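Figure 3 (text version): structure tokens given as input.
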């Protein structure tokens, strides 16, 4: 006859009795044995958090949290999740994170959400934890707790799941989320994998924080999503990065050109080593240029004697109300 230990009887413990478990009882307990109906859900956040109050590297603690089954993680309630600490969250392994239900994930407080801190856990989130089912539940406040290197890890591959994040969650991104500290080797948001809806949700203040690679990534991924509002938020330097490739310039929607201003249209003169972006503007795009943008044109941008200025068709397509804003000096060079 095989002798049975106490842990083999855990599934028979009444749900109400579990509320009496103290730190002494919890530590060392094999939580995976709580398989009875409603048992795991009966544990309070305070009881679960006791596991994380030991040393973070304590093998026993990590093993205990690791013993929690994926079925139990799926049964974790929003009420329990709301009370978990970031120390407890940091101990969840990849399979457990992947089984967090949308409502549960959304209930984790921003402070606790920042518990997804180690490189391993960030990688876990990007490869197994963010899915079309649970990613939309992540809130702006939660996302804002992740530093740029972690945002970078979540957006650096097609399997990251970043594209599943709700556009509304991106409004919480700040400088530290988008570009980090600016130090060498600092990871940052990879815009090349953003969806059209996510790009459209970005504010002017956020777009202005993008570095050259991030601006280029916008047109690489979804040139159709670049709106006039996005264009108007860019600096001349950012415009130069966005239009460094002639294909990227041509891919921009004509309506987006309404966003160019006197302050940034100069960036169209720096299209890289092989070409100037302004020479690739189509007549359809030129027709949307505003009077303010035309006012900012340099003589070199309209000099018909060069191959780096407007084409004749594009120049002719500039609307009369905009055309009259061209400076006399610039007009004389045409």
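Below: residues designed for each position.
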């Amino acid at each position: 006859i095989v002798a049975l230990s106490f842990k083999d009887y855990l599934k028979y413990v009444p749900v109400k009795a579990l509320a009496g478990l103290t730190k002494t009882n919890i530590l060392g307990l094999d939580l995976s044995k709580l398989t009875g109906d409603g048992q795991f859900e009966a544990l309070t956040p305070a009881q679960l958090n006791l596991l994380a109050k030991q040393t973070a590297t304590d093998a026993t603690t990590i093993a205990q949290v690791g013993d929690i089954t994926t079925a139990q993680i799926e049964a974790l309630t929003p009420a329990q999740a709301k009370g978990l600490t970031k120390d407890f969250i940091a101990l969840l392994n990849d399979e457990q994170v992947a089984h967090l239900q949308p409502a549960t994930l959304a209930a984790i407080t921003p402070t606790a959400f920042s518990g997804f801190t180690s490189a391993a856990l960030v990688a876990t989130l990007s490869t197994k934890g963010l899915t079309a089912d649970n990613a939309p539940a992540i809130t702006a406040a939660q996302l804002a707790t992740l530093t740029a290197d972690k945002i970078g890890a979540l957006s650096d591959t097609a399997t990251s799941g970043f594209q599943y994040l709700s556009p509304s969650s991106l409004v919480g991104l700040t400088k530290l989320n988008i570009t980090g500290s600016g130090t060498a080797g600092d990871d940052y948001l990879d815009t090349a994998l953003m969806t059209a809806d996510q790009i459209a949700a970005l504010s002017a203040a956020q777009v202005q924080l993008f570095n050259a690679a991030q601006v280029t990534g916008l047109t690489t991924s979804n040139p159709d999503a670049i709106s006039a509002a996005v264009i108007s938020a860019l600096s001349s330097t950012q415009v130069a990065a966005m239009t460094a490739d002639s294909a990227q310039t041509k891919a921009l929607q004509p309506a987006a050109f309404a966003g160019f201003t006197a302050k940034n249209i100069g960036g169209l003169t720096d299209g890289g080593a092989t070409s100037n972006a302004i020479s690739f503007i189509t007549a359809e795009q030129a027709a949307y240029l505003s009077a303010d943008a035309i006012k900012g044109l340099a003589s070199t941008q309209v000099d018909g004697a060069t191959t780096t200025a407007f084409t004749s068709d594009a120049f002719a397509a500039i609307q009369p109300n905009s055309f009259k804003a061209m400076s006399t000096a610039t007009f004389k060079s045409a």
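The longest helix spans residues 119-129.
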